[in-house]
C-alpha cells in the first residue's frame, strides 16, 4: 500500500489518470475508449520514465537538444530555428504513433498479453488525439448505434483490465484480478473464451 501511495504522490499525471479511471464509468459508453486510451498513455509514460533506460535517454536527449538550440536561438534566423525546433520535437514521435510503448510497458513489468489484448492495444490510433469515433465508423440508424455501444463496452472493459494490470504490477501486486470483459460478456452479447479471473 505504501508503494501505491508513493506512486500517486510522485506524479500528478499518474494521480490524475487514476482519478479519471475511478470516475470513468459514470460517462457515456461512447466516450470511454478514447478516455481510457489517454489514461493508458499516461500510465505507460510513467512506467517507461521510471523503468526504461531507452525511454529515459530519449526523453533527456530531446530536452538537452532543445536547451542547446535555445542557447543559440539569437544566432539563427527564425525560419532555421523553427525547422530545428520542430525536428527535435519529433525525435520520439514515430514510436508514439503506434502501440510499441504500451507493449514495452507490459514487458518491463513481466505481464503477458493475449492475442485479444494486443488487438485491443492496436486500436489506439482509432482514438488518437481523443477521437471518439474512428473515421471508418458510420452510424446510419439506432441499430448501428447500439452495436457500436456494445463494441465500445467490450473494448472499454478490456482496456480497464489492462490498465489495472499495469497499476497493480507497478506496486508489486501478485494474485488474481477480475477480467472485466469476461464478467460482462452477457451484457455485451459477446462470448469471450477466457477465464473470469486473470493471474498477474
Structural class: mainly alpha
User: Please, how many helices?
Assistant: 10
Overall strand count: 2
Helix percentage: 55-70%
What number of domains?
1
Going across the major beta sheet, what is the strand order? 1-2
In terms of DSSP E residues, the strand content is under 5%
Rg over C-alpha atoms, rounded to the nearest angstrom: 20 Å
Overall 3D geometry? globular
* Terminal-residue CA separation: 17 Å
Sequence stretches where pLDDT stays below 50 over 5 or more residues? none
Helix and strand succession? HHHHHHHHHEHE
Reported for the largest beta sheet, the result is: 2 strands, antiparallel
Q: Averaging pLDDT over every residue, what do you get? A: 83
Helix-strand layout with pairing:
Blueprint: H1 2-10, H2 12-23, H3 32-51, H4 53-71, H5 78-89, H6 93-96, H7 100-108, H8 115-121, H9 142-170, E1 176-178, H10 180-183, E2 197-199
Amino acid at each position: 500500500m505504501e508503494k501505491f501511495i508513493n506512486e500517486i504522490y510522485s506524479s500528478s499525471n499518474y494521480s490524475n489518470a487514476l482519478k479519471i479511471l475511478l470516475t470513468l464509468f459514470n460517462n457515456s459508453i461512447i466516450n470511454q475508449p478514447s478516455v481510457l486510451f489517454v489514461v493508458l498513455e499516461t500510465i505507460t509514460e510513467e512506467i517507461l520514465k521510471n523503468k526504461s533506460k531507452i525511454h529515459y535517454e530519449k526523453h533527456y536527449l530531446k530536452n538537452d537538444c532543445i536547451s542547446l538550440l535555445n542557447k543559440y536561438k539569437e544566432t539563427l534566423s527564425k525560419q532555421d530555428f523553427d525547422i530545428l525546433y520542430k525536428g527535435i520535437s519529433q525525435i520520439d514521435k514515430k514510436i508514439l504513433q503506434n502501440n510499441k510503448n504500451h507493449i514495452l510497458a507490459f514487458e518491463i513489468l513481466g505481464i503477458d498479453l493475449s492475442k485479444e489484448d494486443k488487438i485491443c492495444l492496436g486500436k489506439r490510433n482509432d482514438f488518437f488525439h481523443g477521437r471518439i469515433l474512428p473515421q471508418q465508423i458510420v452510424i446510419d440508424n439506432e441499430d448501428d448505434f447500439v452495436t457500436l455501444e456494445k463494441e465500445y463496452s467490450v473494448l472499454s472493459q478490456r482496456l480497464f483490465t489492462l490498465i489495472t494490470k499495469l497499476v497493480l504490477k507497478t506496486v508489486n501486486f501478485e494474485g488474481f484480478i477480475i477480467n472485466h470483459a469476461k464478467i460482462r460478456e452477457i451484457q455485451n452479447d459477446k462470448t469471450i473464451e477466457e477465464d473470469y479471473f486473470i493471474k498477474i
